[in-house]
Amino acid sequence: MAAHPFGPPSTGGIDATGTRVSLVWRAAEDDWVALGQSVGAFEDPTTGPVDTTLTGEQKLQRSTAVRDYLLRHIGVGQAGQACAGTLLPLERLLTEGARFRFDCPEPVTEVRLTLTALTDLNPAYRTVVTADAPMDPAQALFTAAASSHDLRLTASGGGPPGAVTAVAAGTGLAAVGALAFVLLRRRAGVRR
Question: Where is the chain membrane-spanning (predicted)?
């Protein structure tokens, strides 16, 4: 099995809402293949027949070994306690990545993210994690030597997305401006 750790790093996106942390982990297609081979998600053509009715992605999606691997190698903790992790269905795995939910005991402000996926195959693998909301540090690099980082997150709170809030505020300002214009025109008309 050949691992390919020298290409672009794997990436992760993290977000927090209330007591929940959401994480997406994305790897290159050949890295998914290396992971799948390492846990036996694919048949070995030297030892028997290979099922060609399923794609490699489908084999990864259906593999309990892949799911177990991901949950074993990606975790979130809060104040020394593990947050309960759930791996969502591995749909569109190659394009959208593996999606996780971690439920923590307290509202999320700071968590410890541990990410060791692929570094057990080759210590040269690395993952860069960024956040949708403000995070300190703004990004974190996970390697074999630095597999855990404390991240301070500003929880999104589950409210409307920023774009919705901006449009609503802009619409409100436009309505106030239009009303002021009409009132000023009427007032000016009364003075004539």
Answer: 162-184
Residues of the chain with pLDDT under 50: 1-2, 157-184
Could you report the per-residue pLDDT of 70-96, keeping only the tens digit for each? Answer: 999 999 999 999 999 999 999 999 999
164 and 149 share a domain? no
Structural domain tally of the chain? 2
Q: How far is CA 66 from CA 39, 89, 105, in A?
A: 7, 12, 27
pTM higher than 0.85, yes or no?
no
In a domain, residue 4? The reply is no
Within this chain, do residues 95 and 186 fall inside the same structural domain, yes or no? no
Asked whether residue 100 is assigned to any structural domain, the reply reads: yes
